[in-house]
Structures are given as C-alpha cells and as structure tokens.
C-alpha cells in the first residue's frame, strides 16, 4: 500500500475485545475510518469508529459491505466466524483479512485437533483420551482415575471445560455434555484430560505464516467467583506482567515456542493472525531451587478476551502496522514496543452471569482516573441511553508503574461504574503471589 495512505478497517465482533481493538486502531495516524460489525455501545462512541448492523456470521453481508466501502483490512475478533471460514470467504473475494483460515482455526474449534497438534509437534501437554460418545466417555472416566478434566470438543464460549474433583463429578460433566446437550453440537465428542496442578497464564503471539512475535504474558481469571470458585466463564479479569513468566520463560521458549517456530516453517502451517496459547505451569522444589514445567492447555485462534483489554493499553507500537505485517508475511520488518508498566483489567458482569445475561439496565459511568479505560462488551445505545446487553458488560482497565498500583486504580475506576445487577471479582491479580512463585 502506498505510504501515507489512510486506510479503512472493519473489525468483526461486538465484545470488549473488539472495542479494545477499535480503541487501539483509532490511535493510528494511518487509520481513516473504523467500522465495527455489529459493535456495541462503546464502539458507537469510539473515535473514528462507526457501528454497522451486520451479524458476524453474515459472510455475504460483510463481504458486500467491504466492497461497497472500499475496506482495506478486515480484523476478525470472535471464534465462531473464524471456525466457519470467514477468512477464507473474504479472501476469496479479494479482501485483506487478519485471522487464520478455517483449517487452522480448528486449533481452537476442536480440542481434539489441538491436542493431536501438540503431540505431533512435541509440545508438553496433559495426557488425554478422545471419546466420540457418552458410553466411551463414561468408560474412560471409570478406567482412568487421572481423566478428571472434561472438555466439550467444539466452541462453547469459554464455558465447555469441567475441572472435576472425582469420578462422580466427571461423569456429571460427561452427562451435561452428551445427554443434556448443554453445549449443543460443540459436545458431539469430548476430550478427557489429566488434571494438572499449577498456575495458568496466557501467551498471545502475532503470526504472519512464517514467524511470530510474542506479546507480554498475562494471567486470566476464568472462574466466576473470588477464590477461583464457581463455573468457568469467558474471563473475569486479567493482568500483566506475570512474575511466573519471568521465572520460567526459558522453559516456555524451549518447550513450547521452539516447536511452534519449527511448525511455522512447514508449508501446511501457514498460520496468520493471533495465536493464543493457554499454559499451565507446574513446579516442584529440588534441593534449593524450583523446577518449572509448562504444559499447553489450549489454543485460541484469536485475540483473547479479556486479555486484549489488558494488553493493548501496554502496546506502544502502531497496531495497524503489526496487523498489516501479519497479513503480508512481513513481521520481520516490525519491532514491537511495549510499556514497562503494569496493567490490570476487571470485568463488570451481570450478577446472573454466566447462567444468564442482563438487558436494558441503565449504565452510569462517572469521571474515571486518568490512567483507566472502560472497554464495553455487553452494552448498546437504546433511546440515546447506554444500557446493558449481555453477560459480561464492561472491562475496566488501568495502567500504572506497579501491578499493585494498577490493581488499585482499576478497582477505583470500577467504583465509577454502575448498573443494577453489577457484579465482579474482587481478587483479580491476587494470584500473582501464589506459592509456585516461591524461590
């Protein structure tokens, strides 16, 4: 593209992740206009950004809009359209798209596909069994006492994983997936995994089909309630940096990232977009030192949520430049710059989440601290007023010189936000001092 060209970008999606992407893209001097389909109440008010009433699965509608408006780049946020082949569809129409094609989006869309990929490329992961039906899954639970993590094979909005304490709970999880059809077609088969204890972290990589550039590590909080209790959710908060990553980055690089570098050299693994690696790090003390062992839990074929809301405020580089480099195979020409500060993101959800959502409650946002930003997720503008429209409503992010200061600022900002059913975890980032970080 010619130097000094002002570009039009379409961001597909309507959650907090997409608001954060629009927010960061709007800071680029090379961006003329951002469209967000369908967007939310936050993107409706974001600089350079306009919402477009097109559903994320309306491939024909998205393609027609891009051609009509001469869109230069499409950024696909959610998992469903990636898994269904939106990138393939738009590229076939001659459009430039950031995101993996359908075949490689299976790294997220199929837990079984992902596990076989890890084994093939010699990445450390928990042992597992794939069960195609209810009876085989029950038999596996009864025959293998280690099979206590039960995962619906397909996409389940981050809620299709059951971490069980015993055989009875594991069979209940199998029943929920196969008999109750809690996750629909996502539960046509299951992956049963060994339960590994340790600390989780998220590592996101920009990929251009040949190489990758990592973002700073983050730690997400999946469980709904304080103390990591309650059901799994799409994520209740995240923070960066992660002290654990500083201590075991060499092990992660050698055992996880190096196999990925080799995979990217293969013609069949032409992965472009963000690859999200969910890690579990186990540790044990040997003599006077601590030994760390990373395991790959999962892949996501996209920016994480709420990780995106936590990490993009730390990015000092132009996001547009990075996205374009990924689509053109030129990441080697990009040098990412990141702030040395810390970031903390806390999700304000409906009290009933994840079982149900909130609709139509008035949202009030007062004056925020200078270093805080509110990213919208389940919101919309209705009759000129900002109201709730989902389960996870807002993501409040703060950046500060230390993690403690970022956490304090995020909660201070959260107190400036209100709607009737507001609920949030009060312990985001407290795990940063977990026992496995001991010297």
Summarize the structure.
By secondary structure, the protein is of the alpha+beta class. The chain is 28% helix and 32% strand. The protein is globular.
Overview of this structure, please?
- The protein is of the alpha+beta class and 439 residues long.
- It has three domains: 7-99, Rossmann fold (3-Layer(aba) Sandwich), CATH 3.40.50; 127-194, 2-Layer Sandwich (Dna Ligase, domain 1); 199-437, ATP-grasp fold, B domain (D-amino Acid Aminotransferase, Chain A, domain 1, 2-Layer Sandwich).
- Helix content is 28%, strand content 32%.
- The chain has twelve helices and 26 strands.
- The protein has helices at residues 16-25, 59-69, 79-84, 86-92, 102-109, 111-120, 134-143, 167-178, 243-264, 307-311, 319-328, 403-414; strands at residues 7-13, 31-38, 49-51, 73-76, 97-98, 128-131, 147-152, 161-163, 190-194, 199-208, 212-214, 219-220, 223-225, 229-232, 237-240, 272-286, 289-300, 342-350, 358-362, 364-365, 372-376, 379-382, 385-390, 392-400, 417-418, 422-423.
- The strands form seven sheets. Strands 12, 15, 18, 21, 24 and 26 form a six-stranded antiparallel sheet that branches. A five-stranded parallel sheet has the order 3-2-1-4-5, with helices on both faces. A four-stranded antiparallel sheet has the order 6-9-7-8, sandwiched between helices.
- It starts with 6 loop residues before the first strand and ends in a 16-residue tail after the last strand.
């Amino acid at each position: 593209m010619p130097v000094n060209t002002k570009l039009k970008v379409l961001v597909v999606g309507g959650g907090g992740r997409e608001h954060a992407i629009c927010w960061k893209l709007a800071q680029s001097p090379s961006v003329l206009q951002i469209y967000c389909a369908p967007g939310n109440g936050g993107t409706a008010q974001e600089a350079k950004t306009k919402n477009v009433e097109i559903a994320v699965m309306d491939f024909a509608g998205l393609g027609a809009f891009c051609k009509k408006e001469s869109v230069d780049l499409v950024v696909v946020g959610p998992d469903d359209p990636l898994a269904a082949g939106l990138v393939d569809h738009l590229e076939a129409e001659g459009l430039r798209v950031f995101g993996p094609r359908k075949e490689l989006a299976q790294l997220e869309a199929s837990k079984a596909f992902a596990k076989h990929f890890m084994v093939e490329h010699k990445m450390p992961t928990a042992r597992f069994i794939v069960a195609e039906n209810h009876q085989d899954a029950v038999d596996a639970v009864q025959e293998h006492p280690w099979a206590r993590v039960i995962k619906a094979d397909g996409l389940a909005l981050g809620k299709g994983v059951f971490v069980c304490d015993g055989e009875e709970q594991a069979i209940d999880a199998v029943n929920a997936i196969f008999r109750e059809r809690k996750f629909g077609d996502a539960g046509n088969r299951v992956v049963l995994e060994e339960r590994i204890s340790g600390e989780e972290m998220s590592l996101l990589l920009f990929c251009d089909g040949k190489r990758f550039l990592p973002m700073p590590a983050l730690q997400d909080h999946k469980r709904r309630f304080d103390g990591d209790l309650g059901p799994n959710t799409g994520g209740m908060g995240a923070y960066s940096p992660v002290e654990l990553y500083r201590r075991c980055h060499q092990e992660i690089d050698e055992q996880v990232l190096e196999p990925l570098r080799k995979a990217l050299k293969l013609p069949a693994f032409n992965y472009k977009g963000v690859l999200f690696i969910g890690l579990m790090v186990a540790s044990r003390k040997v003599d006077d030192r601590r030994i760390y062992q990373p395991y790959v839990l999962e892949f996501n074929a996209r920016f994480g949520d709420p990780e995106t809301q936590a990490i993009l405020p730390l990015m000092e580089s132009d996001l547009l430049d990075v996205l374009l480099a990924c689509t053109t195979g030129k990441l080697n020409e990009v040098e990412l710059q990141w702030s040395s500060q810390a970031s903390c993101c806390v999700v304000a959800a409906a009290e009933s989440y994840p079982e149900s959502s909130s609709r139509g409650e008035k949202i009030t946002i007062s004056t925020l601290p200078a270093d805080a930003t509110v990213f919208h997720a389940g919101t919309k503008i209705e009759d000129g007023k900002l109201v709730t429209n989902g389960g996870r409503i807002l993501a409040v992010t703060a950046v500060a010189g230390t993690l403690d200061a970022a956490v304090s600022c995020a909660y201070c900002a959260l107190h400036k936000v209100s709607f009737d059913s507001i609920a949030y975890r009060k312990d985001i980032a407290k795990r940063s001092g977990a026992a496995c970080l001991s010297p």
